[in-house]
Amino acid sequence: GLILLAAALGATAAARCPAPCVCDNLRAYVLCLNGSLTAIPDTIPELTRKLDLRGNSFMVIPAGAFLATPYLTHLDLRHCKVERLEEGAFRGLGRLVYLNLASNGIAFLYQESLDGLFSLQQLILEGNRIEEIQPGAFGHLASLTVLDLRANALVYLPDMIFQGLQVLRWLRLSHNALHVLGADAFAALPALRRLSLDHNELQALPGEALARLDGATRLDLGHNPITYVAEEALAMASLRHLFLDHASLQDVAPDAFARSPQLRVLDLRENQLQGLPPLAGAGGLVRVSLDGNPLLCSCLLRPFHKWLARARVQAEGACAAPPALRGRSLNSLKSPEMRCSHLQPPPSPTAPPEQPSSAGSRQCPRGCVCSPGFHHGSCENRDLREIPRDFPEDTRLLDLRRNRFRTVPPDAFPGLKELVSLHLQRCSIRELQPGALQGLESLVYLYLTDNHLSTLEAAAFEGAPQLAYLDLDHNAFTRVPAGTFWLLPNLISLHLQHNAIGELVEGDLAGARGLRWLYLAGNAIRHIAPAALAPTKMLEKLQLEGNHLSEVPTAALRGLPALSELKLSRNPIKHMGDGVFLPVASSLQHLYLDNMGLEQISPHAFTGLGPKIRSLYLESNKMSNIPDMNNFTGLEILNLQDVPFHCDCQLLPLHRWINKLNLCVGATCGSPAEAQGLKVKLSTTFQTCPGWGQGEAGETNPNKTKAASKSSKKKRLGKSPARGFSKSRA
Prior knowledge:
Layout: H1 2-16, E1 22-24, E2 29-31, E3 50-52, E4 60-61, E5 74-76, E6 84-85, E7 98-100, E8 108-109, E9 122-124, E10 132-133, E11 146-148, E12 156-157, E13 170-172, E14 180-181, E15 194-196, H2 207-210, E16 218-220, E17 228-229, E18 241-243, E19 251-252, E20 265-267, E21 287-289, E22 295-296, H3 302-311, E23 314-316, E24 319-321, E25 369-371, E26 376-378, E27 397-399, E28 407-408, E29 421-423, E30 431-432, E31 445-447, E32 469-471, E33 493-495, E34 503-504, E35 517-519, E36 527-528, E37 541-543, E38 565-567, E39 575-576, E40 590-592, E41 600-601, E42 615-617, E43 637-639, E44 644-646, H4 652-660, E45 668-671, H5 706-710, H6 712-717
Parallel strand pairs: 2-3, 3-5, 4-6, 5-7, 7-9, 8-10, 9-11, 11-13, 12-14, 13-15, 15-16, 16-18, 17-19, 18-20, 20-21, 21-23, 22-24, 26-27, 27-29, 28-30, 29-31, 31-32, 32-33, 33-35, 34-36, 35-37, 37-38, 38-40, 39-41, 40-42, 42-43, 44-45
Antiparallel strand pairs: 1-2, 25-26
């Protein structure tokens, strides 16, 4: 009966397949790749199981967006420019087991964003800009086994943040900026087996938080600036594999792992260890990797060396000193060779003192709601004229949105030493007075979006040195509030979008040494001084879309060796000269040049760019040709839609190259008249060109540019671009 029903529905569905999509009704599979869709099509066949919408432009997934396709099991929304998931966006998808939202621009996960997904097993949110997750966001995902939050902008994990994930087995948090974890951040994960926390900013082993994971067998903490592992720092009853490689370890306490009795493999490669003590209590240890450490093979290392033999632990590593033993492997050493002449034993570092935490005794201000379990306080939309006081002292998130404060006075938040996140959006605020944030020594997030701020006094930020996220979007700034950043040494992310800033001048960002993400979209910036970005040497993302720049700010890009994403969309840049991206060519991965009215790209505009580039957006411009791009071998996304290509023999190299790419690029001929509207990939105009049909190399084609013939070798090597698999271990 079901087969007949499927056949009947399949027949009607064929007629209903949405325009840019391909529908395979037999396998209940619909593909709408790299199209120009701006909304979820409402004519997708109802019985569809797998829906692939990669590379479209949805911005927002509205409530109930998929109610018409209740049988979906797999949904792919990668690279769709999604910035917001409305509450209830996925309601009705009770059969969905796989949801991929990677490589979008999602910044917040709200409590109801993922409602209704009670069968979901894999949720992939890698490569978004999630800064904050509201407690309860994962509360309905009772079947989830893998949660991938890699490469986001998380700095802090509050208590009970993963509540509801009863069967989660692998939690991936690599490549964030985590430096604070609540003691109960992982408290609600009874089935977790593997935790990936590598490539973060943890300065100490978060022992208290990790102790909640008594079933986890593998923990990855590599690439964190951890300098010391203290006594009994790690109490994980089932842990077998611990990765602490590429950290900044200088010392490990003898009984650091005594409370992790199942530990088998300890990876300490590429640290700053001169030696280790005998690791008492780590009775099950089989292997310790110490490669890449400056091991000092003197008499100080003898106790460790003896312990290795006695406990039958295999060690990998080699001596860096003394000179006579340099390069010798630990395994090959004999005890008498490890001598001491006049060496002083290094002082043993002391563990940082534990901070006692006092729960607040204060009640909640009148008219507000305090949730002690979540350490939340909220007075949202209460028409308040003054900031209330007397919140419980252990409040960590304070939501004061949509009130009418007008000003934030000195010492406005007394006693809130543990406050991490402060929401002051839409509060008609015109000024932050000096000392406004005094005493907020744990504050990481400050949201001041949609206010009337036009200047900021540096002294307003005194007493909040941990601030990492400052959101000033939709205010009235006409210039960057210079001088403010000296007091914010930990600032990572600065939002100044949709203000009225006209230029960036030297000194504007002085003091912002650790800044990684700078968002300046939707201002009126015409000019960026060559040294304006000089203080921000760690900058990774620079978003300048929707400004008034008339050329690529090449001079200002010098000295940004880590820049991986540059957005110049919707700037009136008509012409791009040679080598405009050279200063950032070695690091750039994502380049947005769409909707600029671009008329001409010089043949060498992309000099230096190549295999590193993963996505290139050139849609909605006015040029009729683009430079040779043979060495762009790593592309996962190339968008050439709505560009009026002139399909004559000059375009033959592009036609050939597009035909080799395993990508949908959307390139269409704008002229000559007989080719108008045809896909560049399929157009037959090229069959009359000299050199047509001579295979991939096409060496005899007189119209082929020198650059293209130079790179014909590369062209043959670069047949299949990488399809977005991360090489990171986690």
